[in-house]
């Protein structure tokens, strides 16, 4: 009888592993960071196609393959149920925009970072995007800022300024256009 129960349990575990409950079948992976009075939910596209993400009233269009984005909440507003409310679907109306260059000026003494996003082609396409900056001090995340923008003309300047002391940054730009 014991052997039968063990075989049934092993069979159920195998079924669970191979029928969509495996984390690799998800379109995204996530990580949560707490910084002072903020909760940052960092999501990464783990699928092989661009995806659109939404949570509550926040929407992120066209997150490219292997790219990250972030939802930022005040600590008192964040609920654990949000993990179950993340919606992801394949992006069909939007596509990644790759024809841009970035000029970046970082002044650690003033704790400022300025970024100029320029189109490399002189096209009339209206592009949408987000720029996310992760600020680090001694390899610990101390601040995060995110700016959504519309690139109507040839260039867009975005300024980031942190009140926290930082010595390194990681910057993500996700820029897309509507088909």
Structure, described:
The chain is mainly beta and about 180 residues long. The chain is built from two helices and 13 strands. The strands form four sheets. The protein has a four-stranded antiparallel beta sheet, with no helix packed on it. The longest helix has 16 residues, at about 1-15. It is globular, with a radius of gyration of 20 Å. The chain starts with a helix and ends with a strand.
Q: In terms of structural class, how would the helical and strand content be classed?
A: mainly beta
Q: H/E element string?
A: HEEEEEHEEEEEEEE
Distance between the termini: 61 Å
Strand order of the largest sheet: 7-13-10-11
Q: Residue share in helices?
A: 10-25%
Q: How would you state the average pLDDT, rounded?
A: 88
- Kindly state the number of beta strands: 13
């Amino acid at each position: 009888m014991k052997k039968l129960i063990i075989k049934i349990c092993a069979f159920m575990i195998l079924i669970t592993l191979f029928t969509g409950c495996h984390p690799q079948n998800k379109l995204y992976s996530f990580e949560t960071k707490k910084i002072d009075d903020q909760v940052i939910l960092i999501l990464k596209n783990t699928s092989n196609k661009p995806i659109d993400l939404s949570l509550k009233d926040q929407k992120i269009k066209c997150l490219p393959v292997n790219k990250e984005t972030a939802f930022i909440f005040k600590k008192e507003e964040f609920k654990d149920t949000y993990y179950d409310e993340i919606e992801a679907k394949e992006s069909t109306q939007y596509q990644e925009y790759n024809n841009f260059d970035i000029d970046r000026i970082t002044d650690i003494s003033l704790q400022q970072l300025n970024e100029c996003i320029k189109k490399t082609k002189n096209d009339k396409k209206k592009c949408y995007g987000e720029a996310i900056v992760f600020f680090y001090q001694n390899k610990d995340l101390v601040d995060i800022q995110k700016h959504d923008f519309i690139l109507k003309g040839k260039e867009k300047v975005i300024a980031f300024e942190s009140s926290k002391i930082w010595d390194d940054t990681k910057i993500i730009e996700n820029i897309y256009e509507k088909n």
